[in-house]
Amino acid sequence: MLLKNTNKSKIKETRNYLRENCKSIEEVLKQLKNPQNSKLSQLTKEMNEINNLYKTWRHSNKIKSRRSKTLAEPVPKPEPKSSKLSEDSESSSSDENADWTGMDREYTELKDLVSEYQDTISNLQTHIFELNEQLETYSFKVEKKASQLSQMEKNNEELRQVIQEMNSTLAEKDQLLTETKTESEQLEATLQETKKNYSELDEEYQKLKCEYTKLQLELEEVKNNSKPKFEIDTQNTSEIYFSPLSTPKMNFLVVEDSPKPTTSEKYSISNEFYFKRSIRYKQAILYSDDTIEIGTRIQTSTQKAVMDMYIGNKSSQNLSSLETHIEHSPENLSITIDKNTGPEIIPPGSKALRKFLIREDDLFEGEPILKLSFNDTELYLKLPVCTPLFFYQDEDSSTQKLESQCSKQKVFIPGSSKINLNFFRNFEKIKTGSGKILFAQSVFGLVVIYIEFHQLASILEVSSQNPQLTRIILNLILTVIH
After folding, report:
1. Residue 240 in contact with residue 249, Cβ under 8 Å?
2. Quick one: 102 and 22 in the same domain?
3. Are residues 353 and 429 in the same domain?
4. How many CA atoms lie within 13 A of 295 on its CB side?
5. pTM for the whole thing?
6. Tell me: the pLDDT tens digits for 253-262?
7. Which of 48, 134, 269, 447 has its CB surrounded by the most CB atoms within 10 Å?
8. DSSP class of 239
9. Given 182, 198, 218, which residue is the final one in a domain?
């Protein structure tokens, strides 16, 4: 009887244990419902087998329980039977004990199997947790991408609107361009007609201009043949004045096209433009390009002068093998280079100095030419050393008498009236009528220049006691004008 009660309690514990484990297994199965999970499919299959085994086991337990109840009911005292009945009872009891032993063994096996599946479920739960974390990460990325996609769609919509506006604007501009093109064609036709009319008028104007110039020349020729331009008042020598009504006291040498010095024609001069500018001032730039810049400053004293020259390196490389040499010097002009000035190499952004000592022995024509070489480059430069450099202001012009020839350039190039005739600021100016008189003193005599400006042409006259000086000054002025 005690054995039966013990078996009942074990059966009850087994039922409760199996029920709890089955519930936990079902919960795990709900979490693992994923048709792509192969482990879940295998676990489901095994759980079905366990459930079938459990049902079979319950069914067998019910049958045995019924038998136990039947055996537990009070049985009337048996009447004495034969020995054969006693033997049958003992054999049935031994069969029942064998059945309970088999059930214990099955219970132990089931318990081990459930423990094994619990471990499997724990591993699966861990795997589920990892998958959930990955799912959250992917969800966050998907949300971020979705947000970016939404922003891109918004931007695309804005771009579509902008493109539509641009297309609308382009259509308006195309229409405006078409209208403008039509107007332009009309204006072009009008312009061509205007050009044609202008060409005809210009031809007439040129003809009239030529006739006017001829008349002016003829008029000037008549004036020159009848009246002098310059006159020194011997009674009152306090000023030099222009008097067309006075009687002539000097002869005129008419120079229609005064020749220029040809000494430097064999050299390829690099600074013609800068020379014409530098000859007007005592301090000026003599030459400049992307590599080098050369400037001069001149100080004079009667027949001597000192010229300081700087040579600046504007490039990013050294100027090496720098040499300066006087290639040509006019007759009666002495010019030397101070040997104590240098250096021969000029770094980028630096400069070198050269000093020139100049002396005028007598009147000279032309300009000295400097040869400057560096690296593989050679430059031939005209130096701004000319006769007016040695002029000085006349302090006592009243004692001077102008009784020599006067050379005259009747007409020079129109549009050149802005020429600075005040060379090195050594001339004095006297205005008279519509013209201007400039005069200066030198060791070779007094020089007087008269200039009169007109719209189409201008008159230039030079006079001096020394004909050579007159020719030099006239050629120099014409050089600067051209």
Report:
1. no
2. yes
3. no
4. 12
5. 0.45
6. 444 444 444 5
7. 447
8. -
9. 182
